[in-house]
Specification:
The longest helix is centred in the C-terminal third of the chain and has 20 residues. Helix 1 links the parallel strand 1 and strand 2. The two termini are 22 Å apart. This protein is an alpha/beta fold. It has one domain: Rossmann fold, CATH 3.40.50.
Length: 146
């Protein structure tokens, strides 16, 4: 039987929108059962987007302001139980890099909200929550949700 929380690395392109949102949701809903972190294929800036911060604060009363965008390689992707690419392009890049064992790599279908308005961020957060619930339920962690 597994000991300790499930370690998940969420990866998007710039590491300022989808993957920090995923971390905020995982911490809010599955704290203790999941240890979530994030990284990007090509990190941008030095903090999450304002929209991402607003969405997580509004929906989950969580603060992700301490997030610092970082490169996937710096996150040590092989050390996680699962690496979740937020879209197929990110998945393909990770797969081609060989940095993540294929049995740990998963692709989701969360569209990048950047530049598409605040509603796109809320929609991305809803989709991430749904995908995370489904992903964890398939691994018998669905009961950990708060």
């Amino acid at each position: 039987m597994r000991e300790g929380p499930l370690r998940i690395l969420f990866v998007c392109y710039g590491n300022i929108c989808r993957s920090p949102i995923a971390v905020g949701i995982a911490r809010a809903l599955y704290d203790g059962a999941v240890q979530a972190e994030s990284a990007g294929i090509a990190p941008v800036g030095d903090r999450p987007s304002e929209e991402s911060v607003l969405v997580i604060r509004t929906l989950y009363n969580q603060d992700i302001l301490d997030h610092k965008p970082r490169q996937v390689a710096a996150a040590g992707p092989g050390e996680y139980d699962f690496v979740i690419a937020m879209d197929l392009d990110v998945y393909e890049r990770l797969k081609a890099s060989g940095a993540v064992p294929e049995d740990k790599l998963y692709a989701w279908d969360v569209a990048d909200p950047i530049g598409r308005g605040i509603e796109a961020y809320f929609a991305a957060a809803d989709k991430i929550r749904d995908r995370l619930d489904q992903f964890l339920a398939n691994r018998s962690l669905g009961g950990g949700r708060r």
